């Protein structure tokens, strides 16, 4: 008997511990990497639409009870306490630790290793504590939970779920849609997860992985070309403006919840969670785009650069060959 609820279009992968009354909403993905469980979701916690939660052996996800995440949140290897209220589009990065009874404003980014004390109100990119909770804040948290903030013992259901993906064509492959005379072409060794959708003039190269909830649209505006051994992770969107092209070269990793629009991304680059790369931009080889950054239209980034910010600016140099991050998909 399942003690929690999972929407039809949500996906659970790997080893997970999920508490009684938890809810995983439409389009949300929980992916646990490694041979043992790396995600724990407490009793009556809710992860709302199109959010992504990724746990790894190095960075476990531990979410307390009666914590509620808004739409399009991203959690990568973070620990988050009980009775937290998380605004839409908030991002928690590896090693961050959050206490109980915290409130996060929409679009907040919690930096790697950041410690947020219990009873904090946090906003910004990067997130900063602006004040402690008031009585009114606590009343709001209680009201949003039906005036019941009591916590029951955590007795999770343990499960291990294999991902629904298939190389080439098969019943577990995502949807491929023609547009006009153009039909997507996917190499027989590439994997397209079952809730991914690819439309029109799109080519996906050998060994590439298109994760759950990804949308790639190559309509009349121009071609989308994805190289070999590329990973495009959960709930990312790829599209482009008219008379343009979207080129992603070999060995690129694009993190969850990104928007990539009509640009060129050089080989070996890493685009971290929640970043936006705009039309006509060119990123050189081994570029690192930090989490939540915005690369403006027509930006040119030289090889081996690290860019960060909203808008993004060069903040350092990357190594000769970036390693694929822990939060990527590992077979």
TrEMBL record:
Mind listing the UniProt keywords for this protein, alphabetically?
Transferase
Q: Which Gene3D superfamilies match?
A: Hexapeptide repeat proteins
GO MF annotations in UniProt: transferase activity
Q: Which residues cross the membrane?
A: none
Out of the domains of life, which is the source? Bacteria
InterPro entries, alphabetically?
Hexapep, Transf_Hexapept/Carb_Anhydrase, Trimer_LpxA-like_sf
Q: Which Pfam families match?
A: Hexapep
Name of the featured protein: Carbonic anhydrase or acetyltransferase, isoleucine patch superfamily
Q: Which organism is it from?
A: Acidaminobacter hydrogenoformans DSM 2784
């Amino acid at each position: 008997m399942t003690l929690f609820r999972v929407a039809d279009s949500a996906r659970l992968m790997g080893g997970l511990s999920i508490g009684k009354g938890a809810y995983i909403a439409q389009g949300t993905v929980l992916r646990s990497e490694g041979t043992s469980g790396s995600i724990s979701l407490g009793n009556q916690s809710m992860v709302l639409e199109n959010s992504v939660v990724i746990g790894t052996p190095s960075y476990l996800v531990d979410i307390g009870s009666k914590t509620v995440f808004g739409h399009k949140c991203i959690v990568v290897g973070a620990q988050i306490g009980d009775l937290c209220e998380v605004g839409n589009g908030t991002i928690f990065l590896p090693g961050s630790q959050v206490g109980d009874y915290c409130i996060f404003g929409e679009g907040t980014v919690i930096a790697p290793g950041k410690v947020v004390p219990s009873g904090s109100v946090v906003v910004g990119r990067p997130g900063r504590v602006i004040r402690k909770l008031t009585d009114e804040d606590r009343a709001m948290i209680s009201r949003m939970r039906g005036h019941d903030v009591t916590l029951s013992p955590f007795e999770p259901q343990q499960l291990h779920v294999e991902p629904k993906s298939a190389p080439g064509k098969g019943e577990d492959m995502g949807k491929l849609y023609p547009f006009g005379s153009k039909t997507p072409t996917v190499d027989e060794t590439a994997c397209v997860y079952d809730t991914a959708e690819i439309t029109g003039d799109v080519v996906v190269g050998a060994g590439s992985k298109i994760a759950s909830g990804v949308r790639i649209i190559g309509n009349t505006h121009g071609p989308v070309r994805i190289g070999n051994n590329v990973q495009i992770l959960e709930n990312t969107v790829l599209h482009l403006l008219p008379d343009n092209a979207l080129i992603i070269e070999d060995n690129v990793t694009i993190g969850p919840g990104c928007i990539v629009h009509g640009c060129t991304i050089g080989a070996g680059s890493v685009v971290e969670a929640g970043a936006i790369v705009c039309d006509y931009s060119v990123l050189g080889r081994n570029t690192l785009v930090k989490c939540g950054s915005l690369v403006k239209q027509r930006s040119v980034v030289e090889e081996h650069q690290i860019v960060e910010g909203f808008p993004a600016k060069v903040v350092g140099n990357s190594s000769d060959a970036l390693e694929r991050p822990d939060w990527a998909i590992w077979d």
